[in-house]
Each structure stands twice: as structure tokens, then as C-alpha cells.
Please model this.
Amino acid sequence: MAFTRTKHATRDHLPHLLSNVPEEHQEPIKQLCLKMMSHDAYAKPYQWTSRDFDMGAPLGRGKFGRVYLARERHSHFMVAMKVMFKEELRKGNVQRQVLREIEIQSRLKHPNILRLLTWFHDESRIYLALEIASEGELFKHLRNAPNHRFDEPRSAKYTYQVANALNYCHLNNVIHRDLKPENILLTSSDDLKLADFGWSAHTPNNKRKTLCGTLDYLPPEMVKGVCYDASVDQWCLGILCYEFLVGNPPFESNTSEITYEKIKHIDMHYPSHMSSGSKELISGLIRREGRISLVEVMTNPWVKDGMAMRAAQLLQQKNERGKENLARN
Ligand SMILES: Nc1ncnc2c1ncn2[C@@H]1O[C@H](COP(=O)(O)OP(=O)(O)OP(=O)(O)O)[C@@H](O)[C@H]1O
Model:
């Protein structure tokens, strides 16, 4: 069948859209698509309100927002609804950061960036309808992992996905500037979603143990307060990759002063369990100048081999679960 290119899919596109969906899921997904296409909002301007959604269980709580599972009433499409009280935003003087977050996040469309599907407000609240990342914060998974660290294949896959998301941001003139496991969410399919654009840099972080939590990911140029460019995100990616593999960021110390000195002198150590490939990658990112590009990260041999190994790990886990289910039934 030949398709004419339209901005929005129509019923005619369904066989094509469903071609990659496993057979057992095709019918429910087809029904969901049909319901979405028959909604007044489909391909037309529409003023969403809280009446369009049934609110469900809480998913989490941030400094200014509470996040709930929510279901769009007509299509039954599920979202993560972040609800913020205007009064709290005003008191915290973060209205501008929230608007920036909305403005940036609504125009970024990438598989590893949390999608802001729509937003609306009423007299007292702002609602952000976000894509669901059902495994929640990556930070929680890192803390729960054996020795509080991920193995090399898992770290490599996550490093690739963050590099891919950041590369897309940079191509769209966006610098994230606040990369850390707390600002990354995980989906049920083991994929990362970069979140918290535009304002979390200004949000005090109470989740880290050390006083210098906010300093841990800062590159020397930001610590010193001099001009910086998009390559700050490459530095942060190096810190993130190190934290995945080691369990804590490389310059973490008991005081901000010590962390500051360590960042300035790039005073860091690689534990003996790290492979030479991972150390080479990280040292290409955590350097004052000439940081390797995000495309170089994505094509790095340690990253590519690790990704293939992670895919094999996940396939094995899936097969084992399948066998267990068979044995149970
Ligand atoms: N799209 C989502 N899917 C699933 N869970 C989510 C989603 N967004 C947020 N959460 C959960 O809700 C919690 C609070 O999220 P929120 O974005 O309000 O705060 P935060 O970014 O962690 O903190 P802060 O408000 O201090 O920046 C998260 O830690 C996460 O566990």
C-alpha cells in the first residue's frame, strides 16, 4: 500500500504502524490508536483540562511537584501527570525555570528524552502530562544494584543512550547542564529518559549524602564561574559513566572545598575492577579541554561491545522468565 505523507497518522497507516508490534499486542494497540484518532484533540488544537484525566496512584514527589499515574478518559492512554501548585512555585521563585522546562521539553522529541505530551493549568495548579517511565529514577536502581554499581555492559548501554540524547539536545541548541542519575528515569524496557530540563540546576538537591552534592558533576569552568559551552555535558557524561561503574562520582568528598580542589586538579582514581576501555572513554570526557564528541562516545568500541552484551543479558533474562512462567503453568 502506498502512503501519502501526512503529519498525523490515519486509519490507513495502521498496518504500517503495527508492523513492528508483536502479534499478541496488535489488537489492543490498534484499539488504542483508533480511540486516540477519534479524540477531538487528534491533529487539531484542543484545550486540555484536568477533567480529561482520571488521576491514579502517586508515582513520586519532587520539591515542587507531585507525580501521579493518570489515564486520559477517552482513549485510556496512560501518562505520568506532574501537578505543581502555582503558590508553591511563586514562593520558591521558580516560575521562570518551570516555564523554561515546559518550553524546552515540549519541543524535544527523542527516544531517550522524557516527552512532555501536553500541559495546561487552572487557577491554582500547573499540570504536565509526561510520558511514563515506570521504573522511576535511575538513582534508585544504582543504589539498589550490587555494590551500588552497574556492570560494564549496563553502564555502556546507558552511556550510549545519554550520549544520544545529549547529542540531539546540542543539535537543537540545548545544553542540559544538570546531568546526574537523579535526573534520569528508567522505563520497563531498560531504556533511559533524560528529564528535568531547565530548572533542576536551581533546585537544591537533598538526596545526596555529602554537602557538596551539587558540585559533584560540575566541570571546572562552571565551578570557576567562567564562560562555558555545550561541552560541559560531555564532562558530566564522563562523571555519570564513572558513577555507573564505581557507585559514586569521582570527586565526591566531605566538603565542597575539597571537591572543588579535586575538580580543579582533576584528582581522581580508577578502581582496579574498571576495564581499560571504560577508563579510556572516561578520561576522554573528564578533561579540561578537547573532550571527545558525543558521536565519538556513541561509536566507542567499549560502548558498542557493552551494548551488544547488555542486549544479550536482557534476552537471557527474558528467556529465563519465560521458562519460569511455563514451569508455573
Ligand atoms: N514520567 C515519569 N514516570 C514515572 N515516574 C515519574 C515520572 N516523572 C517523575 N516520576 C517520579 O516522581 C518523582 C518526582 O518527580 P519530579 O519531577 O516532581 O521531581 P524531581 O525532579 O525528582 O525533583 P525536583 O522537583 O526537586 O526537581 C521522581 O523521582 C520519579 O520517581
